Structure formats: structure tokens, C-alpha cells
Amino acid sequence: MSISISQKHLQSFKIFLTEDEKSKATLDKYMRDINYFVRWAEGRQIDKLLILSYKSHLEKVYAITSANSMLAALNSFLRFLGWHSLCVKQFKVQKNSFCPEEKELTRGEYNRLIETAKRGGNERLALVIQTICATGIRVSELDAITVEAVKRGSAIVSLKGKTRTVFIVSALQKKLLCYIAKQNLTTGAVFVTRGGKPLNRSNIWKAMKALCEKAGVLAQKVFPHNLRHLFARTFYSIEKDIAKLADILGHSNINTTRIYIITTGIEHKRRMENMRLIM
């Protein structure tokens, strides 16, 4: 089977994802990954051998988890077009029992990011970081933190066909109310650009990356989703209730939640040392 991909194919798939109520972040990622494949293919006829060659390319260029997510997007696209025979298997991944230390954002590093933002006069960024970390929301859900939600003490988040309530703890609520008053906000999203539009993933990512060197935190640790992981680990260390944590994070599958609470190798080793099984 040898075919080619047209702009009509891409547009039809984008419409399909939209009608399937995929989140904007998911839709953008799928289309970004598929367009990457189209550019890589450079107009060549698409057949199984080319897809397998692309799979080998991904293995050389990307981390396995990233390569698998890109293959998942491409497979979804191929199945949508009815080209099931072109789909390829994802790479097998051995699940880690702990998180690499160089990727885990610690509580101390989190505090340094906030203090650095404050010293730099960026109150908005300091509050964005605290809001994501204290509520466990996704960065794409930040626009649910509205003036009305802050006053109420809870936000209603709708994503992927599911709706959940996110509580805003009193300490965060007080900070946000002060910020709202300073900014003369009366309604709508709390965190907005100078033009009045809600901050997006790109805005926040760039601002956080700019903090890294000043805060003395490795760049690979500083991205919005790592704040959600810190929330998850902190909650679980106190409550030890993975089912409740899954509900709070908006996960349908507890196995997804397990990824969020994996500790570092150092913590893993410390717990093993405390077992005291050597006489």
C-alpha cells in the first residue's frame, strides 16, 4: 500500500479531533506531530517501509517516551484515514520504579523559583507557579481560575468530556484576591496578558525558563507540568490515597496517577536502607 498525505487529509483529521472534544493541547500536539512526519517524509509515497524508517528516525532523535507519543499521534491519524495496515507498534518501555533526580522538581527548588520571581518584580509569575502547584491543575486549565472562582474558593474545570471541582485553599485565595484588587479585575481569567487574553502554555513556559539560572534550578526541571507532579507527590505523602489523588488530578486511570507519585532514586535508596535487612 502506497499513498500520499494531502492538506485535505490533515484538515479532516483536525475537524475529527475537534468534534471528538479533544483538548486544545491534545489537538495541537497531534497536529504538530503529524506535520513533523509530513515534513520528514518530504513528499515521498507513504508505505509501511517508510513508516518503519520514520520509527527508526524517532528512536535516534527523541527519548523513547516522546517517540512513542509521536507514533501514537501518527497511528491515530492513519487509522482515521482507514490505513490500518500502515500503523506500527510503539517501542516497549520498561517502567522505572523511581524518577531520575535530575528531572524531579524539589520543594526547595520550587520555593526558590517563587522567591526569584518575587525579587524580580514578577508577582504574576510567582502566583501562577503557586496556583498550579497548590491546586494540581494542568497549565491548560489555568483559565478556569477566574475572579468568580477565586471569590467562591473553587473552580470548575472541564476537559476531555469530564468536569471536576478544583478547590482554592484559603492561603492562595487571599493572595489571589489581593492580586485581583491590584489589577482592578472584575471578571474573567485572573492571569492575563497585557492585551487581556488568558496566559497560555507558551507564555508561562518562557517565563519559567527565564527564572532557571537566577533561581539556580536546572532548566530540565522547570516546566508547568512538573508543578502538577510536585502537587501529586506532596498530596500522596500526606494522604496515601491514590484513588482520591486520581480524582483531584482528573485522571481516569490510576496507572497514570502512579507516574506522578514516583520518587527519586535517592528517596528509593533511603527507604531500602531503612529496611535494615543486613545483619
Notes on the structure:
This protein is mainly α and 279 residues long. It contains 13 helices and two strands; from the N terminus they run H-H-H-H-H-H-H-E-E-H-H-H-H-H-H. A hairpin with a 2-residue loop joins strand 1 (154-159) and strand 2 (162-167). The termini are far apart.
Give a quick set of tags describing it.
two-stranded antiparallel sheet
Overall mean pLDDT: 89
DSSP helix fraction: 55-70%
Care to count the β-strands? 2
Question: Quick one: overall form?
Answer: globular
Low-confidence segments = none
End-to-end distance: 65 Å
Sheet with most strands: 2 strands, antiparallel
Radius of gyration: 22 Å
Provide the β-strand percentage band: under 5%
> Count of DSSP helices?
13
The largest beta-sheet arranges its strands as 1-2
Judged by helices, strands and strand pairing, the structural class is mainly alpha
SSE pattern, N- to C-terminal: HHHHHHHEEHHHHHH
Question: How is the topology of this model organized?
Answer:
Blueprint: H1 7-19, H2 24-41, H3 48-61, H4 64-80, H5 107-119, H6 123-135, H7 147-152, E1 154-159, E2 162-167, H8 170-182, H9 201-215, H10 224-239, H11 242-249, H12 254-260, H13 265-273
Antiparallel strand pairs: 1-2
Structure, briefly:
With 279 residues, this protein is mainly α. The protein has helices spanning 7-19, 24-41, 48-61, 64-80, 107-119, 123-135, 147-152, 170-182, 201-215, 224-239, 242-249, 254-260, 265-273; strands at 154-159, 162-167.
